[in-house]
Design goal:
Two copies of one chain form a homodimer. In chain A, a hairpin with a 5-residue loop joins strand 3 and strand 4. Chain A folds into two domains: about 240 residues, Alkaline Phosphatase, subunit A (3-Layer(aba) Sandwich); about 140 residues, Alpha-Beta Plaits, CATH 3.30.70. Chain A has about 400 residues and is α/β, with parallel strands linked by helices. In chain A, helix 5 crosses helix 9 and helix 10 runs parallel beside helix 12. The longest helix of chain A is centred in the C-terminal third of the chain and has 19 residues. Chain A contains 14 helices and 13 strands. In chain A, the strands form two sheets. The first copy, chain A, has an eight-stranded mixed beta sheet, sandwiched between helices. In chain A, strands 3, 4, 5, 6 and 7 form a five-stranded antiparallel beta sheet that branches. Chains A and B meet through helix 4, helix 5 and strand 13 of A and helix 1, strand 13 and helix 13 of B.
């Protein structure tokens, strides 16, 4: 559904809505007893909440699609990620807490190795250490462009962020990474006249970088990709009419919140600290996005038990959140990160929505299989959740007379 | 979801995917014990497979829509049949194993009866015998056109295939069948300038046919409809990155596979023979579409027991297929053909997807009612199945960062 429909229906209310995201929540069964991470976790508080909630599973992007963190969260916020695509450069800037300005063009840089003939021999420069990366980024930071500014910031290993700033920039510039060894880095080609200046700045940056990195094998050259600007989307407040805040300790998730105009609050760390921050800011916002990273990290490491612990930790702290008596509490993951895939997965994600009006179903515990028979269904499109949550907060008017 | 999304995500893998289609699988309960054909069938192997699989029912086209074989199979292949429509002429060509060339325009011909004033008295010429049809088609095959070629081939009873071949042809020509008696056959009107030549060839063909059939009542005239060319769709391999093959003994299904660039393998007949062919070709392809026609035929004849037998036969042979250890095995029907309708139906079709990552649900046997509570849900859009199967084959990359 088009966000403009929601935007035309939202109305004032004093209700409070909390979206609690356990990143990578969905899992897969282990051999020993056929239980998933969430099913194996002892979660008395989540189970009790499920009894009073409408439950189900959501499909973040579309059937069979494994979402990255960006699309997965946009879906949870109600922005269909097939329609609202964020460029890699913008996501990279978010990941290192770089505050992009409107008009900035960000892109992902990779240190790489080129041979004497200029052709690429290693697209990742042997995955140099992050420490080495910092040292080299200091060199690149010295680069001055003739007709604009450039900022460089270390991300991790061979990866860094480049941001071009100046008047009249455009994201329509092609990657310089040919995505293969044996080829030379490509020219940053502009897709249209509007991108000519950006392409010129990028070319100048690459030339200076080549000079500065000469002799510094394996990192003697750079590749740029994913040129992107902040998108001009309606903000979360514009769509839903709520003052929105996020509590997250990874820059990427604060960045995704800020992308939609949410205020990034202080207070990271353990679930208890996050719920404490929630309490402190309770009166100043209507919507809170609380992000817990650990289940995803454990899943990406293939650590079943660590993921169980991370889920149990949230469950243990949950009463602290419930004491605040949010009018609507939605608990879910942004996507599955099953231990068995050691990666994000396409599998639907358990979700519950609790409110005085949710119409609780017969689901008695919060788990992948139990949620199949819940009232939200076994494969609700992820971007449908937020309108349902806002309706439960009595924040959406009637459609039509 | 647009196929281009899948196309942009597919990646290399050595995994093997098998789609086993029991044509017309879905059914309706019989009076005696309230069991459907599939529920009544003794299917120990399918039931055991269901235990280890994610199950559900799919809706091939859309709610309430009874699909023809073409749209139903396109849906299974992931091509939404509302977006990807094959013309009747192309389907007719497939049905008689006619190998259309790009540019050819095919259409369905009907022998009909016209009175002395030229108006139609029977649109089907009294459903003449197929033998008579062959005799008349021999006459029509003698027709030579001034500026192109025409091929005529018997289908069945009053139905035949006409294919125009030549440079600069177009499918945008209107039917000559007025779909009513008492009217004269229509002129094959071109919808635009590009179709003028095709319309001229069609008109010439109809005129020659009228002359050749004069005095041969009841089949003294022809009606043409469904002018269509091979569509320029992305091939199955382009979309999913797999080398795809089909094993089917009816021309229509081989044709549908070929339409998407699949290789039609030898080896028809009973399920055992088909699974043998599968084994022989196992190393040469990544994706196999195996088609079993009998359940549909039995349903169209209203034969409950014959359909049960056909399903049990596949079940009996299943271990032969499972011995090959496909990474992903999807078993379903293209549509329902309930004995009670003596025809295709709109009812959702049981489906199971088995893989190491499928996240099995609590469904314990493969049947219409049992599958309702499966993890795929009770009405998954048919075209969503293939992306899920390919995700389970670890053949789709992450969407977004």
């Amino acid at each position: 559904m088009d966000l403009s429909v929601i935007q035309s229906l939202h109305k004032r209310s004093d209700s409070k809505v909390v979206l609690l995201v356990l990143d990578g929540l969905g899992g897969l069964p282990r051999e020993s007893d056929g239980l998933t991470e969430l099913e194996a976790a002892r979660t008395p508080h989540l189970d009790a909440l499920a009894v009073e909630s409408i439950c189900g599973l959501h499909e973040p992007v579309a059937p069979g699609i494994t979402p990255g963190s960006g699309p997965a969260h946009l879906a949870l916020f109600g922005y269909d990620p097939l329609d609202y695509q964020v460029g890699r450069g913008v996501l990279a800037a978010m990941g290192v807490d770089f505050e992009l300005q409107p008009g900035d063009v960000a892109c992902r840089g990779n240190f790489c190795t080129v041979g004497a003939d200029g052709s690429i021999t290693d697209r990742r420069a042997g995955r140099i250490s992050t420490e080495k990366n910092r040292e080299l980024c200091e060199l690149l930071q010295q680069i001055e462009l003739s007709d604009g500014e450039v900022e460089v910031q270390t991300i991790k290993e061979h990866r860094f962020l480049v941001v071009f700033r100046g008047a009249g920039l455009s994201e329509n510039v092609a990657d310089t990474d040919p995505h293969a060894v044996g080829l030379s880095p490509l020219d940053p080609e502009p897709a249209d006249d509007d991108a000519a200046k950006t392409a010129r700045l990028a070319r100048e940056f690459v030339d200076r970088a080549r000079e500065k990195l000469a002799g510094r094998e394996p990192a003697n050259m750079v590749l740029l990709r994913g040129f992107a600007q902040l998108p001009g989307w309606p903000s979360f407040e514009e769509v839903y009419g709520t003052r929105a805040a996020c509590i997250a300790d990874y820059p990427m998730y604060r960045g995704l919140g800020r992308l939609l105009g949410m205020t990034a609050l202080e207070g990271g760390g353990e679930p208890e600290t996050k719920f404490e921050a929630l309490k402190e800011n309770w009166n100043d916002y209507d919507f809170f996005f609380v992000h817990v990273k650990k289940p995803d990290k454990a899943g990406e490491d293939g650590e079943f038990d660590t993921k169980v612990d991370a889920i149990e930790h949230v469950d243990h702290a949950l009463p602290q959140l419930r004491e605040l008596k949010p009018d609507v509490l939605m608990v879910t993951g942004d996507h599955s990160t099953p231990w068995k895939l050691v990666n994000h997965g396409w599998q639907p994600v358990p979700v519950l929505i609790n409110s005085a009006y949710c119409r609780a179903d017969d689901v008695r515990n919060f788990g992948e299989r139990a949620c199949i028979t819940g009232g939200l269904g076994p494969r609700l499109r992820g971007s449908s959740l937020m309108p349902i949550a806002m309706a439960n907060a009595i924040r959406l008017d009637k459609f039509g007379a």
